[in-house]
Design goal:
eight-stranded mixed β-sheet; alpha/beta; binds 2'-deoxy-thymidine-beta-L-rhamnose
């Protein structure tokens, strides 16, 4: 019998980095998985290589094109002459992904419209727990000028969405790490951190708006526990320095009352996962660290990306409704206070100083966090669900042509 060799699919992904590295954080994870687990040839176009380099130090700022971990990375510039040359090559791909509605270059859309077999065009959307996401997942829209088909593909936390990004062996790696008695101390030792069993280990990744001083004060005053807080460099620096009354630097340790604060370097995405697995409680933000904290199966506090006029409030609320924390955990009061949402005033009647209650979360939320992670992992991973959707579209398009 002659084995039929399937042609490797070719995919181009476009990502604009607004003012942060979060969007490329999500896209880089996705590109690596599509390349390594689905055997796709992946070309990733990024407009801001410097932000990308924060996450992936191998990135070179002087190259227009480079290959890292099997993914071809291009510097996406506004040079229209270059686009006239590159557009045809992109239009010949099997799939084009536009991340977070970043708008493809006009020349690419025009080249796709001229192609006999245009690529499957997907817009990968931001993560949201709002109920409307389920009905918009997979939805089709026609490009107004060309009539080209574009599908919206949503990550999510329910079975009617595209799931979350994680590798096939994620569960195995996490569980093996958590089961190895020395894994935590070995990981922490690399940063010069030693802990006793009585201490509570907390990671703190947030936006500058978060009420960090209030939180650190609550940690410093914590009754009988020692709180070890791990702060990535560059996070909430002004607030932390004000609180400590001194400048902070990477690798240094600061003590105030029951609080011991370590300033960590920015670690790789793989090490950041391990950091989350080590901690009893994780403060996370935006999209990607929020997802990693959920998958870690550890209690967490989420600071959503702040938007004008508190537009992020309903999004936070939608997640809280889905997450359904056990009664008596004060999670809602703590999260709304951490996000400075107006509802926190109403909730303050129930929970006078939410930050004083934070240290109860590791115990109250651990079982729930494990179950939540399990349910997410059972829903299937984003890259696999996306590839299934793409294959179906390719088959439909081929059937139309033949
Ligand atoms: O950087 P962020 O604020 O990203 C956000 C969101 O993506 C949001 O949706 C978008 O609109 C906004 O940017 C502009 O936070 P996020 O999403 O958690 O991304 C941070 C990335 O950094 C994530 O991939 C985890 C990673 N990380 C490390 O790799 N090492 C570290 O030491 C730390 C602290 C983070």
């Amino acid at each position: 019998m002659i084995a039929v060799q399937q042609k490797k699919l070719h995919l181009h992904l476009f990502c604009r980095v607004i003012d942060n590295y979060g969007d490329i954080g999500v896209c880089w994870r996705l590109c690596k998985l599509l390349q390594s687990e689905h055997e796709i040839n992946v070309d990733c176009w990024v407009d801001d290589l410097a932000s990308f380099k924060v996450l992936c130090p191998a990135v070179r700022l002087d190259l227009r094109r480079q290959k890292i971990e099997g993914v071809t990375i291009h510097h996406w510039t506004e040079n229209q002459e270059e686009w006239r040359q590159n557009a045809r090559q992109v239009a010949q791909a099997d799939v084009v992904i536009e991340a977070f509605a970043c708008n493809l270059p006009e020349a690419v859309i025009m080249a796709m419209a001229k192609s006999e077999r245009p690529p499957v065009w997907i817009n990968v959307e931001y993560l949201s727990a709002e109920p409307w996401v389920e009905s918009c997942h997979g939805m089709l829209s026609a490009h107004p000028k060309t009539g080209l088909k574009k599908h919206f593909f949503f990550p999510g936390m329910t079975s009617k969405t595209g799931g979350l990004i994680f590798s096939r062996n994620f569960r195995y790696e996490r569980d093996a790490f958590l089961a190895r008695p020395t894994a935590r101390s070995e990981f922490l030792n690399e940063f010069g951190i030693s802990i006793s069993t009585a201490s509570v280990l907390v990671s703190l990744f947030c936006y500058p708006e978060a009420p960090v001083a209030q939180l650190l004060e609550a940690f410093a005053q914590a009754g009988d526990k020692q709180i070890i807080c791990l702060l990535p460099v560059g996070v909430a620096t002004a607030d932390v320095e004000n609180f400590l009354g001194q400048q902070i630097e990477v690798g240094s340790v600061y003590q105030r009352g029951h609080l011991r604060l370590h300033v960590l370097p920015f670690v790789s995405q793989t090490a950041y996962d391990q950091l989350l697995w080590c901690c009893d409680l994780n403060f996370v933000r935006g999209e990607d660290s929020f997802v990693r904290a959920q998958l870690a199966g550890k209690p967490f506090v989420w600071q959503i990306y702040p938007q004008q006029e508190d537009a992020h409030g309903p999004k936070l609320e939608a997640f809280l409704n889905l997450y359904d924390a056990p009664d008596g955990s004060n999670l809602r009061a703590i999260w709304t206070a951490w996000n400075l949402l107006p509802e926190s005033l109403a909730l303050s009647a129930e929970c006078a100083n939410p930050f004083e209650k934070i240290l109860a979360l590791p115990e109250q939320m651990q079982t729930h966090a494990e179950k939540w992670a399990e349910s997410l992992l059972n829903q299937g991973d984003f890259a696999s669900l996306l590839m299934h959707f793409i294959q179906q579209e390719i088959e439909k398009n081929s059937a139309k042509i033949s």
